[in-house]
Design a protein that fits this description.
The complex is a heterodimer of chains A (149) and B (119). Chain A is α+β, with helices and mostly antiparallel strands. Helices cover 32% and strands 21% of the residues of chain A. Chain A has three helices and five strands, in the order βααββαββ. In chain A, strands 1-2-3-5-4 form a five-stranded antiparallel β-sheet, covered by helices on one side. In chain A, α1 packs antiparallel against α2. With 119 residues, chain B is an alpha/beta fold. Chain B has one domain: 2-Layer Sandwich (Transcription Regulator spoIIAA). Chain B is built from four helices and seven strands. Chain B has a five-stranded mixed β-sheet. Chain B has a two-stranded parallel ribbon with strand order 3-5. The mean pLDDT of chain B is 93. Classes of the chains: A alpha+beta (149), B alpha/beta (119). The interface between A and B is medium-sized, with 22 and 23 residues.
């Protein structure tokens, strides 16, 4: 649905924020809270908040834990978020060498169920409408669509 | 009440150690590590551990938390212990279903239901 033109500042105008985050729980939590506030502004449901928060958490964890594994701890990750009335677009870019998502084993296979790691990517895929990596494999772009949008 | 520094509330009842999380969100890797260490210490201190983990306070968890639960489950299996999970919020239960981890954990609606299944 196209938003109707308005003479005054449009309250449905997407919110866009770009943050450079360090591997610090306080910074990550503050960023997530800011994202959740933007979702509240557009009255996303509790299930949407859960899905978006989970996906962002997993993307940031992958960036810091895997992407920055061989980089100094203070190396920042870029979080770029656009929250609109119908969808949320999130991009997380690390400064690591990148990886090949297709090479990650399927954690839902019986032989992998008791392996502790490797579920972040599949959870992002499960909860997001789309998930795309750049060619280098160091930037993931997630799109969440409001149910029924 | 949780002791200082712990991320868990722990009580013992009928030879079962019941563990509850202090935090509503189990996301922080440092906290997850601390939780894993604390539960591992409980398992290692008991010859045949019987452990019930309640998620009654938990709104959010990450795949890192799932990983720690799997490590706990593996350790319990190695000691031939009994592990039960209970009081899981429907949204978090969905995560268990998506990851198919509901197949490796014994999950129950309530603490009472879970307690009734210990042998």
């Amino acid at each position: 649905m196209q938003p109707s033109p308005r003479a005054h500042p449009d309250p449905s105008k997407p919110e866009h924020v770009v943050l450079r985050l360090h591997n610090d729980r306080g910074e990550i939590s503050a960023a997530e809270n800011r994202l959740l506030e933007a979702l509240d502004k557009f009255a996303y449901a509790k299930a949407s908040r859960f899905a978006v928060r989970l996906a962002v958490e997993e993307a940031l964890t992958n960036a810091f834990r895997h992407g920055h594994r061989r980089l100094p701890r203070e190396t920042p990750v870029t979080l770029d978020v656009t929250v609109g009335p119908e969808e949320v677009k999130i991009s997380v870019e690390d400064q690591g060498p990148g990886f090949t998502p297709e090479a990650v084993p399927d954690p839902t296979l019986d032989e992998n169920l008791d392996k502790p790691a490797g579920r972040g990517l599949m959870l992002m895929r499960a909860y997001m409408a789309s998930i795309d990596y750049n060619a280098k494999g160091n930037r993931v772009t997630l799109v969440y669509r409001r149910p029924g949008a | 009440m949780a002791a200082s520094g712990t991320r868990l509330r722990i009580k013992h009842e009928k030879d079962v150690t019941q563990v509850e999380f202090v935090d509503r969100n189990i996301l922080d890797e440092a906290n997850i590590q601390a939780i894993g260490d604390e539960i591992t210490a409980i398992i290692d201190a008991t010859p045949s551990p019987r452990l019930l983990i309640s998620f009654s306070n938990v709104d959010h968890l990450s795949s890192a938390a799932l990983g720690t639960l799997i490590s706990i489950n593996n350790r319990m299996k190695a000691k031939k212990g009994e592990l039960r999970l209970a009081n899981i919020d429907p949204q978090i239960m969905e995560v268990f279903m998506i990851t198919r981890l509901n197949r490796i954990f014994s999950i129950h609606d309530t603490t009472a239901d879970a307690l009734a299944t210990f042998t």
